[in-house]
Specification:
Shape: flat
Helix content: 55-70%
Distance between the termini: 56 Å
Number of helices: 12
Length: 274
């Protein structure tokens, strides 16, 4: 019969396994951060120690969550393989380790030059001579164009607003209002404190959508909000903070490009884009 101390240690390990798997299922942790083989060893090690129903139930719960993580890993691999995805860091490592001869060999295998054969005939030479003889001299062909002089002036703020170079509000005020709008939309249409990116920036016109996406980038840069990306589901959420987080400006950030093209806007209007 196993000791109570061993049973307590086993319960603690199973509980940590369940918490780790739950974090992965919530997309808070990379699914490949979990070593499945090590987890199975732990479950096998303590399974003979269980004598009570509660312990067996905890053991089965750990196995259930582990199966969910394995499913997420499988879906991730399937998604990458079907989209012919190659990890850029892995590709960089292969190029760094490859020799010059190997790189030349790979280039030659992938190189498919287009070959064209042209031959100059007597007729072509005669046509070329006639062409050059009929050309005007360079000084007549390249005449200087008169450029009208334009007086230097100043533009007022109203003129810049009318030309849409500046907005009619102070930028900080406009950004603050946009942040409040994000929080209100999350409360009304979002879930778990976030909303789909396109459901927030999308508007009736493409021009307004681009303007909203431009302002959203500043919300994220200045710490008013953050992006939450689910690569397996191909979903992007935007999540506002209750108060701006100033430390974001002092930390090294990762740039995440989001294509706000006219085609993507049309797909969103038709309900085909998240």
């Amino acid at each position: 019969m196993s000791s109570k101390r061993e049973q307590k240690l086993g319960r603690e390990k199973l509980q940590r396994i369940i918490e780790m798997c739950s974090a992965i299922e919530a997309h808070a942790v990379d699914p490949f951060m979990l070593d499945v083989d090590d987890i199975i060893k732990v479950v096998k090690e303590y399974f003979p120690s269980w004598e009570q129903f509660e312990d067996l139930n905890l053991d089965s719960e750990a196995i259930h969550h582990l199966a969910s993580v394995i499913k997420l890993q499988s879906e991730w691999v399937k998604h990458r393989s079907t989209s012919l995805y190659t990890d850029p860091f892995l590709l960089e490592e292969k190029i760094t380790q490859a020799s010059k001869e190997e790189m030349i060999g790979i280039f030659l295998k992938a190189w498919h030059p287009v070959v064209e054969l042209e031959q100059i005939s007597i007729h072509s030479l005669a046509e070329a001579m006639r062409y050059w003889e009929t050309l005007l001299p360079l000084k007549e062909r390249w005449k200087e164009f008169a450029v009208p002089e334009v007086a230097i002036g100043t533009a007022t703020r109203d003129e810049l607003i009318r030309e849409r170079i500046l907005g009619d509000k102070v930028f900080s005020e406009e950004l603050e209002n946009y942040w409040q709008e994000l929080k209100e939309k999350v409360k009304a249409k979002g879930h778990d404190g976030k909303i789909l990116y396109w459901d927030f920036v999308g508007a009736e016109t493409y021009e307004e959508t681009v303007q909203r996406a431009f302002l959203a980038s500043f919300l994220i840069t200045y710490g008013y909000a953050t992006l939450e990306i689910h690569p397996l589901e191909e979903e992007i959420f935007i999540k506002p903070f209750e108060t701006p987080i100033a430390k974001i400006l002092t930390q090294q950030s990762i740039s995440i490009p989001i294509a706000v093209t006219f085609e993507n806007w049309q797909k969103w209007k038709r309900g085909e884009l998240d």
